[in-house]
Amino acid sequence: MESFDVVVLGAGSAGELVAALLAQAGRSVALVEALRVGGECPYVACMPSKSMLRSAQARAEARSLAAVAGASSQPALDDDQPAFLAAVGRRDDVAEHRDDRAAAAEAQKAGITLVRGRGRVLRRGVLDVDGRELGWTDLVLATGSEPVRPPVDGLDRVPTWTSDEALSAPERPASLLVMGGGAVGCELAQVHVRFGVSTTLVEAGPHVAGREEPGIAALLGEALRADGVDLRLGVEVQRAEPTGGGLALVHLSDGTQVEAERVLVAVGRRPTTGDLGLAVLGIEPDGSGAVPVDAHCRVEGQQHVWAAGDVTGKAPYTHTASYQARVLTDNLLGRERAADYRAIPRAVYTDPPVASVGIAAEQARAEGIDAVTAQMDLGQVARSLTEGLGGGRLVLTADRDRGVLIGAAAIGPRADEWLGEATLAIRASVPLVLLAEVVHAFPTFAEAYEPPVRELAEAVRTRLPPAPRSGAAAR
């Protein structure tokens, strides 16, 4: 039996980084992966989706070229089908054609023992990988997550995609029904509708992007509708059946029916914890399938078992996985460190993008925080005029007792970039009175911070709610 200081089960964003950092520190490390080194993000998720979104955005921008005086008349575009195939070609280049050989070689060059196959705990201290036994002093669980397929009658009999499949396939369906209005559903709905696909998005909740501030989410819904997405809110898919022409006939809870060439299932993901042999170690995933961890990323009740990434169920994003990987590695190397999830940013990379961090006022008040909010209409920012773009909104939430920002949400041009200021302010607990002194370059979208931050600083000082004014409102 081969023995290692650490065996890492799963080579996604978290596992790959943990293995690299430990190998760099001189530990013997085995990295076990059944599919691709790098996980979902580089090959069938983050990178290909952002590539397709950029292609769709460029096509939309070309349609408005004359409106911003980039041309004296509107240039002609080629048909949607060849344009889509060109975007797919670029997507596959960005995703390295789903080939992980370069990443695998890099891992091995770093001194990591890469083991291909499915790992399962055989007994404490031993992992079995298709008959090959690996001994470990410490075990790191980094198995990621997998798409949820809801138990909808007939869904298994109609042509469906998961997001992984949609971002790997070359086909452009004539019509698409998207199940789920989260980030993935919204992004892929916009990609397809901008390439001429008749697109319907079905969301059981009252608005898309259900975790986000309602006003921000409503503006995202408006943007999708403006692109041509048929948005069905407060509606569920009840059953599906194949038609004689090979299409899917989907029956909705409001009594309507939608016919589509393809159904994209984007109702969420669950941690991948099945058939890992965790019961041998006395580890029981929670109701969502996540492995419970403490602030050090150690699995609860375990001395030498750790976890990072989507498998923990905490803020399931690639950047969270990388953050947890560094926290976990520091603790494994004896440098005590605790994770802090107060300022993990979220984003929906549509056009315009939605970005948020921290908590909204409703959640804060439920936690007993004296929360106050202020907001700014991006249409009042000078950069919106020079860019010839539509408006948007920034909503800030403060803790009146502590005098600090605790939440921010925005929709607008490049919001995913300029929301970093709020992320830093929340993570560092920067006093509002100091934030109110920050000077932004003119004209930039970041200027949108200044009026609401000043209002919140005054509300903290006077203990009064901020006064509504033109271009901003408070509640």
Core attributes:
single chain, 475 residues, alpha/beta, FAD/NAD(P)-binding domain, Enolase-like, domain 1, 3 domains, 7-stranded mixed β-sheet, 6-stranded antiparallel β-sheet, 31% helix, disordered C terminus
Q: What can you see in these coordinates?
A:
The chain is α/β, with parallel strands linked by helices. The protein folds into three domains: 149 residues, FAD/NAD(P)-binding domain (3-Layer(bba) Sandwich); 114 residues, FAD/NAD(P)-binding domain (3-Layer(bba) Sandwich); 123 residues, FAD/NAD-linked reductase, C-terminal dimerisation domain (Enolase-like, domain 1), CATH 3.30.390. 31% of the residues lie in helices and 24% in strands. The strands form five sheets. Strands 1, 2, 3, 4, 5, 6 and 17 form a seven-stranded mixed β-sheet that branches. It is globular, with a radius of gyration of 24 Å.
Task: Give a topology summary.
Elements: E1 2-9, H1 13-24, E2 29-33, H2 41-44, H3 46-63, H4 80-94, H5 101-109, E3 113-116, E4 119-123, E5 126-129, E6 132-141, E7 145-147, E8 160-162, H6 163-166, E9 175-179, H7 183-194, E10 198-203, H8 214-227, E11 230-233, E12 237-242, E13 248-252, E14 257-260, E15 262-265, E16 269-271, E17 305-307, H9 318-332, E18 346-348, E19 354-358, H10 361-366, E20 371-377, H11 382-387, E21 393-399, E22 404-411, H12 415-418, H13 420-428, H14 432-435, H15 450-462, E23 472-474
